[in-house]
Amino acid sequence: MEVDLLIYGAAQVLTVASPHGPKRGPAMRDLGAIPGGAVAVHQGRVLDVGPSDRLCRQWEAAQTIDAQGGLILPGFVDPHTHLVWAGDRADEFEMRIAGASYQEIMAAGGGIMRTVHQTRAASLDELVSQTRGRLDRMLAHGTTTVEIKTGYGLDTREELKLLEAIRRLQAESPVTLVPTFLGAHAVPAEYHGRADEYVDLVVEEMLPAVVRDCQAQNQEGSLPFCDVFCEDGAFSVEQSRRILEAAQALGFRLKIHADEFKPLGGTRLAVELGATSADHLVHTPPDEIEQLARSETIAVALPGTPFGLGHRAYTPARAIIDAGGSLALATDCNPGTCWCETMQLMIALACRYMRMTPAEAISAATINAAYAVGLGHQVGSLEPGKRADLILLDVPSPAHLAYRFGTNLVRMVVVGGRVFEVQ
């Protein structure tokens, strides 16, 4: 039998195989490494993985690629981004390094609402154009699946515009995009002092409008996730509960921003509601870490955000992993706190500031991240039958992904069997 593509001669192939769900605890250190490995791809899916000498004997290929001693692993999955926005907040960065806090910048009319103003003023075409470059850079750095949140519209029409931008980007990009509705990203200026009324709008108007929009696009079976920013200055636990329970009743799967600045109880709420993921978790108390570890909810750490803010506190990854929890990594790519498109840097930061091993960080950036967006059965590992999303790095071992930083180590990206050379 002839296959479409055979990549051979790798120093190692990291399968990151995990057929029974996301990796937890010590399993996160097992990358399923195959020394001298190869990958056979047919009709966009992984057909076979194993030693190069066996695969080269067994399969004829329409296209062969010599990995030349590089490292092959699954394409990165970025499970938390705010990728669709207009404008920038470079001036706020200068305010921050001069000593202004995140909350002080928001109180002065900056922060999320600054981007909301710029995004509302942008046309759909402008939004797609500005986002395209960010998405292309993600692909070039090895990311093959990306979650993208709305949340810079904060009214029904504008939130639907952001969902349409994500659909247009998906139509033109090889990267798999996973949409998330984040109408509860902040209380917009026109609802200042009336947060409960804005929650009414999200529950009674926005969520049903998203359902109707998906039905109109013949996507009623694939609603986006619903997320809430549960944080001091954003939405309380009770407001978050109301939104998430309403979304769940309509068929949305759930996510939550929790414990980024203060431990309000958002992680406990995520576990109670069976959310797919709870994200940030910088200040999650020990008892809620234990609850999280016993649940199916995946913790998503965003090390680029405290790094971008100049903070010293990071997600307690060691405690979560050692408790038996499942942890994923993401960029949190956004215009205010972490304009970063590369998961490679997230791995480097996680190992330095979150005490993760390189193997744990790779598991977190691939298979666990895939489960954090509901796609663990399709992507995130190199197992027969899964989509052929993989990357070839110019390094001999996984430790180099953490050891080196500030440069792109990716030589080639394969998405659904399509080969993209990285310049």
Keywords:
single chain, alpha/beta, six-stranded mixed beta sheet, globular
Shape: globular
Distance between the termini: 33 Å
Helix content: 25-40%
Low-pLDDT ranges: none
Given the helix and strand composition, which structural class is it? alpha/beta
Number of strands: 18
Strand order of the largest sheet: 8-9-10-11-12-13-14-15
Biggest sheet overview: 8 strands, parallel
Strand content: 15-25%
Q: What radius of gyration results from the CA coordinates?
A: 21 Å
Question: How many alpha or pi helices?
Answer: 16
What's the average pLDDT? 96
Any overview of this molecule?
With 423 residues, this protein is an alpha/beta fold. Helices cover 38% and strands 22% of the residues. It has helices spanning 52-58, 90-97, 102-107, 112-121, 124-140, 156-172, 195-216, 237-250, 266-273, 286-293, 304-309, 317-322, 343-353, 358-365, 367-372, 399-403, and strands spanning 2-8, 12-14, 33-35, 37-42, 45-51, 60-66, 71-74, 76-78, 143-149, 176-184, 225-230, 255-258, 277-280, 298-301, 327-329, 390-393, 410-415, 418-421. The chain has an eight-stranded parallel sheet. Helix 8 links the parallel strand 11 (225-230) and strand 12 (255-258). Helix 5 (124-140) packs across helix 6 (156-172), helix 9 (266-273) packs parallel to helix 10 and helix 13 (343-353) crosses helix 14 (358-365). The two termini are 33 Å apart.
